[in-house]
Amino acid sequence: MNSFWQIKIYRGKFIAYTVFVVSIGLTLGALTCAVLLYQWIENARSEAVSAFARIEGELQSDNDRIEAYMQRIYSNNRLMTDVRYFLGNSAEGYLTGRLQNSQSSEPLISFPEDMKAFLYSSAQGDITQISLHTELQGNVVRFDGNGNGSFQFRLPNTDDAFRESIQKGFVYRKKLSDPNQISRQIGEFRFLVSSDQLFKKVSGYKLDIAAAVSDSGEVYMVSGKDQRKQELVLKAAAEQRNSGYLSVRGVKRVFYTTFSSTKFNYKFVVLVDLLLLMRQNAGMLVAVFLIVLMAMISVLLLIVYNLRDDARFLKRIIHSIKRVKTADFTSSSPARYRRNEYGMIARELDDMVLQLDKHIRTEYLLKLKQQETEMKALQHQINPHFLYNTLEAIRSTALVNRDVDTADAIATLGTLYRDVVKKENIISIGSELELLQQYLKIMELKYPGRFYYQIHVDEALMSLSTVKFWMQPLAENFFVHGFNPGHEFNLLVVNGRETEDSFVLEFVDNGQWISEVRLDEVRSNLSSRDDAPVQSIGLHNVYTRLSFFYREGFSMAIDNNEEAGVKITVMIVKE
């Protein structure tokens, strides 16, 4: 990974790809888990639908049996008679009445026994209590788990045995009419279907939390019996929608679905704890996570492979560029070029290196030798010319003054000439200004009280590299062409400043103007490349040397000032 991690663009790409792949992977994983969770919830809902349908079917079956039994009573006079005995008597009265009215030629009919055989046994024990009521009291027959009956007679209708509660079960009420006068009601049957017996039949269904809730708010927990779960059941039953999600501690983590009974006033409520559901299916969730993780890792490895391959070619391209910059055109080992943009660039760049090598060997080296020869010739032209003029100035001063100034001038000249000879050809602007000041001090000795100079150059220019001894010819031009010996105030000002995109040096004097015709000639001669002699050899040599050194980043302008004198502007473009 180090092959591309050190390159900023590929490091940024890898981070972006990683964020994208992880985001997509997490999104797909979350969607897959959400789909699985939805499917599991739907499965639980289907189980709830089946369980509720089973309960409703059992209640309907019990209702059908009860209706059939009522028809059996009305169609059997002896059974009806026994029912009447049971309704209006105590235990002793019921037994006595049965015996007194029995006939030896007919078998004895027992309403409780007949009811047990027809209802309790065939209903598989759902109906555990049958009571027969008048307006004030009722007689009760109960069956235990083994089908054994027990009786209670003349219990008030307000007795707790007749209190209807979902904890006990569901009550079917059937009127008992006089068979001779149907409009006359003689009593009422109440058949109790046990909740324990009824809901036991759905114990095989996958219901984590299931309950029946009556209209009065009573709860019968079919499964998941817990006080906290009862509170959730009541909360779900109170919801307006038949299904949805409940919040637990501020998080929606329980799914509920409710079913309203068409037989009785109750709701069948099923809850699904999502956390429990996920724990139950943790294996599948882990498998999904591992699949998504492996997919993300595979994609990232593929990305890393491509980025490393691209980075390898980019490094090859950069290496080729560095070879060009250092003029190393030796042939490199052959490369397998990729069939993409990087391969095209690498192939073209290697071909360019070969072409440059041929071009440099045939033309560029020859031109460098030629330029070096020209530079040396120009330097040799300037130095004797400067030395002759300086010695003439010192000689004139010595003849006129015959004083100590001559010794100072000679000492300054010696220092200047020594610096010119010893300094390298490439020096700083600050060093070049020192050479210029030494020359100007000599000129002050030559023209005492009539020549002054000022130098104001920004510090930013002082360390800028330049060629040696090009400012002196510009200053010398002032003394040769623009200086007025009879004038009391001859001034030369050197200004240097930094702009946004260049460095500017200005040489300004207050001497004589240059005529427009002559100014045009000087300007045209500056950039002349032929070997023909030019009149402004000093300016021409300076321009040529600076052009060789700065190339296209150099320009020189010569203009007349508005009041007097000439301004020479040298502009060096920033790299």
TrEMBL record:
Signal sequence residues: none
Transmembrane intervals: 14-41, 284-307
Database matches in Gene3D superfamilies: 6.10.340.10
Stretches assigned to the HAMP domain: 308-361
Its membrane topology: Multi-pass membrane protein
Keywords tagged on the record: ATP-binding, Cell membrane, Kinase, Membrane, Nucleotide-binding, Phosphoprotein, Transferase, Transmembrane, Transmembrane helix, Two-component regulatory system
Name of this protein: Histidine kinase
Organism: Paenibacillus chibensis
Taxonomy of the source species: Bacteria, Bacillati, Bacillota, Bacilli, Bacillales
